[in-house]
Amino acid sequence: MAVWNPWKGCHKKSEGCENCYIHRANARKGINTDIIYKTEDIHKPIEKDKKGNYKIKSGQTVFLCFNSDFLIEEADEWRKEVWEIIRMREDLNFFFITKRIERFTIGLPDDFAYGFDNVAVCITIENQLMADERIPIFRELPIKHKLITIQPMLEKIDISDYLDDTIECVVVGGESGKDVRPLDYEWVLDIRRQCIERNVSFEFRQVGSTFIKDGSTYKIQKQYLCSQARKANISYKKA
Ligand code: SF4
Questions:
Q1: Number of Cβ within a 10 Å radius of residue 170
Q2: Ligand 1: residue whose CA is nearest its atom 6
Q3: Among 2, 127, 195, 211, which residue's Cβ finds the most Cβ atoms within 10 Å?
Q4: How far is CA 43 from the centre of its chain?
Q5: How far apart are CA 100 and CA 111, in angstroms?
Q6: pLDDT tens digit string along 85-135?
Q7: H or E element: which one contains 94?
Q8: Nearest Cα to 124, choosing from 134, 137, 114?
């Protein structure tokens, strides 16, 4: 696994961004996250060592733009170069998460008509409004590997009409940090039911710092967010 941040910085886009961990972490360091800038890692996947071998070894998954949004407006010019690098490293699998799927086609390579095999795109939604806005756009795009993440999940959401075999997985989780919005386990189980009924893989990734189960509210420490979700043992693998 490798991380590639060709640019950093992001603007809050919708309700799910309210407690964005990037904004919070940068604020503690006095960094203004709303300034978007290209990093010196822009060519990272094609950097070579002294022997002439790629530093990022073949077969790895590269997590792209985990300090920004790959589709953010300020990066439109820089993104063309990044697509070229993605094409050059067809031996790597690239993965990014976005809240701006409506901008996906801006700067796309001409030969992307049917998607690249080595690119997986995950859209993030937090409520019914964003589900109804983003998923229909996502479904129409020529992307070979599509995933949906509902993190932080802020309410009960019905995505059943959008689930079919083009969606590889739905991931659910809560919000982490102090005084964050709660995740209700009933909402999680409801998404799981929808996924099973449509035979789409489902993963309960983390419980969130404020977790409601059977009407009781629990405060969960950061180090247990994922392990508590795993303990629930409700993830589902497509048959
Ligand atoms: S889009 Fe993602 S990275 Fe950008 S502000 Fe929202 S949560 Fe943070």
A1: 24
A2: 17
A3: 195
A4: 22
A5: 22
A6: 999 999 999 999 999 999 999 989 988 888 999 999 999 999 999 999 999
A7: strand 93-98
A8: 134
